[in-house]
Amino acid sequence: QVQLQESGPGLVKPSQTLSLTCTVSGGSITTNYNYWAWIRQPPGRGLEWMGSIAYSGSTYYSPSLKSRTSISRDTSKNQFTLQLTSVTPEDTAVYYCARGREDGYDFWGQGTQVTVSS
């Protein structure tokens, strides 16, 4: 059973960089055809895909966030990370990491609340 766990600070100041790590267990992030995604849900709004890193290491980003988003991985730790720069209060959300395959996302982390506030 694949398990994902998000970690990182729950409070970030405006203009700073938000950094989150997703630790994966029960499966390798380099296994073929898996995509590892960051998805967020602002309060009162729907889920928003932010970007993904593929099993190959290729990255894909939401056009609306591309200029501020970076996703990387540490295969030795079986982790992938999100960096979101120049945050504003509009970036306040529950952030999830998830495993994506051809037919959708099948495993999710529990989510972590991130609040952007001074």
Helices, strands, pairings?
Blueprint: E1 3-7, E2 11-12, E3 18-25, E4 35-41, E5 48-54, E6 59-61, E7 69-74, E8 79-84, E9 93-101, E10 104-108, E11 112-116
Parallel strand pairs: 2-11
Antiparallel strand pairs: 1-3, 3-8, 4-5, 4-9, 5-6, 7-8, 9-10, 9-11
Radius of gyration: 13 Å
Poorly predicted tracts of residues: none
The count of strands amounts to: 11
Classify the beta-strand content into a percent band: over 45%
The largest pleated sheet is described as:
7 strands, mixed
Q: What is the CA–CA distance across the termini?
A: 39 Å
Instruction: Give the structural class.
Output: mainly beta
Label the overall shape.
globular
How large is the count of helical segments?
Answer: 0
Q: What is the helix fraction of residues, given as a range?
A: under 10%
Mean pLDDT: 97
N-to-C series of helices and strands:
EEEEEEEEEEE
Describe the 3D structure.
The protein is mostly beta strands and 118 residues long. It is built from no helices and eleven strands. The chain has strands at 3-7, 11-12, 18-25, 35-41, 48-54, 59-61, 69-74, 79-84, 93-101, 104-108, 112-116. The strands form two sheets. Strands 2, 4, 5, 6, 9, 10 and 11 form a seven-stranded mixed beta sheet that branches. A four-stranded antiparallel beta sheet has the order 1-3-8-7, with no helix packed on it. The radius of gyration is 13 Å and the shape is globular. The chain starts with a strand and ends with a strand. The model has no long low-confidence stretch (mean pLDDT 97).
